[in-house]
Amino acid sequence: MSLKVAVSALLCGLSLTSCAPSKPIEQTRIVKTTIPASLLECADDPIVPSDPVTDRKVGRWIVNLIGAHDDCAGKVKAIKELVGNE
User: Fold this and answer.
1) Dmax of the chain from CA atoms?
2) Using an 8 Å Cβ cutoff, are 84 and 35 in contact?
3) Span 48-85, pLDDT tens digits
4) Of the four listed, 9, 12, 32, 68, which is most buried by Cβ atoms within 10 Å?
5) Residue 2: Cβ within 10 Å count
6) Which domain holds residue 72?
């Protein structure tokens, strides 16, 4: 009876492994991408308004700060598109 149990277990194990989903093939590819130098430097933050601080100075500073952010965010997006991480 021990032999029958061993053979049954072996056949059961073999039949279960044949139904298992196949493992996907994973490949790693290294691709060198040259990033243009113009994308590696962002615009500097604008200088904080000096005294006397007025609404006009603060408004211009905010506009320039948003412009610096947009410059950097656009370059990061372009780099992501170049390397395929979007």
Assistant:
1) 99
2) no
3) 999 999 999 999 999 999 999 999 999 999 999 888 76
4) 68
5) 6
6) 35-86
